[in-house]
Amino acid sequence: MSPAAGPLGLIAGGGQMPLRVIAAARAAGREVFAVVVEGWGDPEDFRHVPHVVVRVGAGGYAIEQFRAHGVRQVVMCGRAQRPSLLAVRPDAGMAKMLLRIGKAAFQGDDGLLKAAVRVLEEDGFEVLPSQAIVRDALPEPGLLSAAAPDARAREDIRRGIAVVRALGMVDVGQCAVVQQGLVLGVEAIEGTDALLARCAGLRRDTPDGQRDGVLVKLVKPGQDRRVDLPTIGPVTVAGAAAAGLAGIAIEAGGTIVVDRPATVAAADAAGLFLIALRPEELTPTETNP
């Protein structure tokens, strides 16, 4: 990451990851120009960097702003809410993009994001993954917390991997909650926080009153790892704790942990396990739904 590459462009949604990208880029001597998507990112969070706020349908204006500020490399990250296509109200530039994207605009999140990356590249931008800027965002395999999953939790993890892989094949979601082999919920458009809140009322009682069940979060099969990687942070841990779960299993090298020290500390304080694993290392028998 060299200052000679010019300012880094950032398409920013909500949450902490866009702010971590800014901090890491600046620590490496590189300035950032941010396009904050209205309703996704909080403009107040970006007051310390040059930025513009754009509505979802103003993709043409966003590209014009990147060019005007000398941006050649772009990172897309942060929490997003996919809008109804009828509510997008595309500007002229965005309308042309939608024509180029074609039917992918009407498909799942991954298809749309892949198409958006392709459009940016065709327009001369290089799309970088956020983990190329925030180097410690993706944990290696291993236990991150003091607590560890027991045999029952490991079985739920295996079940969750099978379910999330099946979801990912049809580009639906990146995570599921499993307890005692039962799928309490799967992520769709509502996102992980809402999934956890919903599952809190579906959790099975346990004879010993202990925490039970797991959140499993993985990369979708064939996903472009430059955009929309699964992400967890302290808020995820709080949601899992409130839902009575025993822990969280994520894909090593594929799930972003925002503010790892705070996330691990939150898991330890709540008595939850947090483990990073490689799903492909499980046998086909173990991952069969």
UniProtKB/TrEMBL annotation:
Residues 141-275 form the LpxI C-terminal domain. Keywords: Hydrolase. Pfam families: LpxI_C (PF06230), LpxI_N (PF17930). Its EC number is 3.6.1.54. The keyword Amino-acid biosynthesis does not apply. The keyword Hydrolase applies. One of its GO terms (molecular function) is hydrolase activity. Residues 8-136 form the LpxI N-terminal domain. This is UDP-2,3-diacylglucosamine diphosphatase LpxI. It comes from Siccirubricoccus deserti.
